[in-house]
Amino acid sequence: MRRLILVRHASTPGMRAACFPSAQDADHAALAKVRHVAGLPARFDHYSGPEPAARQTAEAIRPAPIVVAALAEADHGRWSGLPYERVAVEEPEALLQWRRDPDAAPHGGESPSALAARVAYWLVGQSELDGAAVACCDAGPIRAALCHALGLPAGSGALFDLAPLSVTELSATRAGWRVGCVNRPVLSGRS
Asked: Model pTM greater than 0.85?
């Protein structure tokens, strides 16, 4: 049976400014808090999304994660790095279309359905493995994994709050994935 521990990467300047995700480094202060990760097994396969903040968070947990393209945050096209508020003012119809239609990509990037498909494909492979795995990535792939596990439509992941440095845990069973926890703080003994 596969136990999959998904860790949302440490905060970034874009997260604090309420911007669409973009390739940014993690905040140094947030990374410093990743010294004592709660509840990790003694042995685990170690993965990371390709973004700098995901890799840095994974490295803070344990060196040399395997970088997995399927764990990349959605490509938000021309909206990448822009404040949500600005997009809401300048392109309200496009933003509404993107929120309502999982196949829409008015920003010229990746649709929620495309993100969901690549994460689901990766999860199928993970479900065939035994032991534990820890994967650090941004919220999009974690939300897509939750939707897959729960049989929810693509794009429904926005219903899940996922704080930086939080854990979502899934376990593979013969009947599919089970959700152990969502948005649990990753730290123990905060300093």
From this structure: yes
